[in-house]
Design a protein that fits this description.
single chain; Quinone Oxidoreductase, Chain A, domain 1; Rossmann fold; six-stranded parallel β-sheet; ADH-like_C; NADP; ER; Oxidoreductase
């Protein structure tokens, strides 16, 4: 089969190559991939010299089951699915356990659905962990990215007052259209405190987001798109103005190898198919154009999701 593999001689450190077909484990379905979605983390990882040439990467992919899992788990052959994995998503075939794939409604756009796994699941899981959101103020940093756009929509639908943080003023109208009640360039500009933060950026934004949290509130750090290795100052943790019991915690989607994401993947796929969630695709092309898409991500020229269709 053909796949996108790490190639450090290529400009974006990716190239197409012929590789062996995957051999599914008993609990894995074999999926013919029709579309994939790129994330900054995996594209950046491909540029790391420690990542060997020829490595198969790719977290997000959608396609059709060609062989059901022999242990009877998961959907039958012919079912459209969205899949999550730590590797090997950007290929013509992918072996996926039932716990990491969700059924997709017939006729759904698999390119749109392919944006779900990392961005959609991260947003859903983090917001769910914040508890009931009805009437609460929730801040989303990195709001114009994949996770951010999903988070705005899901938080707004849950009844939250959504405060979006984006450094690009041209995106304010589009973020408000997704459900944001306020849009600011920086957390430091937010006047009223928030009860929770989904923090995508890191660095100084993490510090400023924490400063905006009310008593009992929490910042959940899910990314470090700023690339900053800032040291969180101890002074920021000192209770001020009675705002005690604030916390910071991290979230990593694939921390628990055994976690079952199938129900959430299926639900998110149905929401996209019904038009109730906008996947935020800002670049879509054939996978032969992977270099342009990867460079747009690496150079921070892309807001939203990049999708490659596999022909």
């Amino acid at each position: 089969m053909r796949a996108l593999v790490v190639d450090h001689t290529a400009k974006a450190h990716l190239s197409q190559a012929d590789v062996a077909d995957p051999v599914p484990a008993p609990d894995e379905a074999l999926v013919r991939v029709e579309a994939v979605s790129l994330n900054y983390g995996e594209v950046k990882g491909a540029t790391d010299p420690a990542t060997p040439d020829g490595a198969l990467i790719g977290w997000d992919a959608a396609g059709v089951v060609v062989e059901a899992a022999v242990d009877g788990s998961g959907p039958a052959a012919g079912t459209s699915v969205v899949t999550l994995g730590e590797t090997a998503g950007w290929a013509e075939l992918r072996a996926v356990p039932a716990t990491r794939l969700g059924a997709v409604p017939d006729g759904a756009d698999l390119g749109a659905v392919s944006t779900i796994p990392v961005a959609g699941l991260t947003a859903l899981q983090v917001l769910r962990g914040m508890g009931p959101l009805l009437g609460r103020r929730v801040m989303i940093t990195g709001a114009s990215g994949g996770v951010g756009r999903y988070a705005i929509q899901l938080a707004a639908r849950a009844g939250a007052e959504v405060v979006a943080i984006s450094g690009n003023p041209a995106l304010e109208d589009s973020l408000r259209a997704l459900g944001a009640h306020e849009v600011h360039a920086d957390p430091a500009h937010v006047e009223r405190p928030v009860s929770g933060v989904l923090e995508n950026v890191g660095g100084q934004q993490l510090v400023d987001a924490f400063a905006a949290v009310q008593a009992g509130g929490t910042v959940v750090s899910v990314g470090r798109s700023s690339g900053a290795d800032s040291i969180f100052p101890a002074a920021a943790l000192t209770p001020t103005d009675g705002r005690h019991d604030r916390s910071i915690r991290t979230y990593f989607l694939l921390a628990d190898a055994g976690e079952d994401f199938s129900a959430d993947l299926t639900w998110l796929a149905a929401e996209i198919a019904a038009g109730r969630i906008d996947p935020g695709i800002s670049r879509r092309a054939a996978w032969t154009s992977h270099e342009e898409a990867a460079l747009a991500l690496l150079e921070r020229r892309l807001h939203g999701k990049a999708v490659l269709d596999i022909a």
